[in-house]
């Protein structure tokens, strides 16, 4: 049950920074026009896809190995990770410069340099918090996340006020990710270690399939460049603002649900306790579905009012439909990534992740050529949903062949019933097109969902709060 005890701490450490980020996007869409926001989204997406493909293998391997490394081997491991990161930054920067120059020649050198800086600094931050996650330093993890969010928003607004537009958000993103330097204490032992090329090759062999999964972001970047070519940067801005909202809410919640459970599953696997591994995976499944399903259903039910209240009038065109479709595929992607594909990492058979990713990317790009031309931003979201549905089914089938994946169907049925009650409440709630009405609808939905979950687990709750009376004997 350790996963249920640690998850609330991770939740606070991620939900508060996310709340800051949500408010920031609402602020940005009012301070900037859709075209400027679209340029920022296009360049940031470029930095993400190149940075993730270049660095993810190192981050995933660091998370896996740091969780179980022996104290004597820790200095060499940290030295190898640090020098490996520095070496990777050079080719990552070169590729970003090349991609931006070819993809959008109108972007000047300041924007190109800032795009490369976003990739490097974001990867540095994520590497540090991954190591903290592996060492179960949940409080420090939360502090870094909050520092990044606040630094990003404050610096971005100041740069916008100084007269910058898309470059302001890119610069603010870099400044916020400098919070990763607050974890410098993690690297002290690295100065006593030595670089181990054999260890780095071992980390690459383990992590490259996960890095290859970042190839999936290529489809999102391609869609934004294709949208930019067909409908201009304003269409990219609307698509990014609506789609990213779904990913920042559902993706955040589902990802947070796995933060505590993933290292515990790794340790159960390495200890050879198969029964404990099955119990841990079952608990992970319960938590992931209990968080992700109601979040996705709620966002789909409220997509129209949220796009109007949250994004503002300039971004409202088609954003509700994009947000609803994005909620569906973000939920599928979250379950696939954070539960079914976790099986491949546990079993050290991550090549399946890479194959699944390649298939989804190819399918998304192929569908985008047709759907974006017909339906614009909505078509882009439809293409991702169709491709993600295929990848989701493939991951389930493949994972079951690698390791028995426990599915607590009784619990999932209860979650589904509670989610249906919540969605019905949201759809009939009055006054959802105003800020207060939308807030009240969300609160009502949370109450209905929590009440329904409590009702379906009434016997379990009573067992915790009602103690048996004293045993009496007859004389």
What does this structure look like?
The protein has about 475 residues and is mostly helical. The chain folds into 2 domains: about 1-405, no CATH class; about 410-465, no CATH class. Helix content is about 80%, strand content about 0%. It has 19 helices and no strands. The chain has helices spanning about 1-30, 35-65, 75-105, 110-135, 140-160, 165-175, 195-215, 215-230, 235-260, 260-270, 275-300, 305-310, 320-340, 340-345, 350-375, 375-400, 410-430, 435-455, 460-465. α2 (about 35-65) runs parallel beside α4 (about 110-135), α8 runs parallel beside α15 (about 350-375) and α10 packs antiparallel against α11.
Oligomer: single chain
Question: In sequence order, what are the helices and strands, one letter per element?
Answer: HHHHHHHHHHHHHHHHHHH
Query: Helical amount among residues, as a percent range?
Result: over 70%
Fraction in beta strands: under 5%
Structure annotation, total helices: 19
Major β-sheet profile: none
Query: What is the 3D form?
Result: globular
Uncertain runs:
471-475
Query: Kindly state the mean pLDDT as a whole number?
Result: 83
End-to-end Cα distance, whole Å, is: 43 Å
The whole-angstrom Rg is 23 Å
Count of individual domains: 2
Strand tally, please?
0
